[in-house]
Amino acid sequence: MSGSHDTVLVVNFGGQYAHLIARRLRELGAHAILTSPGRFSEVLEGGGRVKAVVLSGGPMSVRDLAGMSGVCNEVLGSSLPVLGICFGHQLLAICGGGDVDGCEGEFGRAYVRVVRDDPLFKGWGEVEEVWMSHRECVTSLPEGAEVLAVSGRGYVAAFRLRDSLVYGVQFHPEVRHTRKGGVLLRNFLRLAGVELSWRPANILEEILEGLRKELSGFKGRVVAAISGGVDSTVAAALVRRVVGDRLVPVLIDHGLFRDGEVEEVVSLLKSSGLDPLVIDARERFLSRLEGVEDCEERRRIIGEEFAAVFKEVAESLGDVEYLVQGTTYPDVIESGYVESADRIKSHHNVAGLPEWLGLKVVEPLRELYKDEVRELGRLLGLPKGIIERHPFPGPGLAVRVVGKFSRAKLEVVRRASRILEEELRRAGLYGDVWQAFAVVGDDRWVGVKGDSREVGYVVTLRVVSSEDAMTADWVRLPYDVLDRVASRITSEVEGVTMVTYAVTPKPPSTIEPC
Ligand code: XMP
Question: How many Cα atoms occupy the beta-carbon half-sphere of 138 within 13 Å?
Answer without folding.
Answer: 34
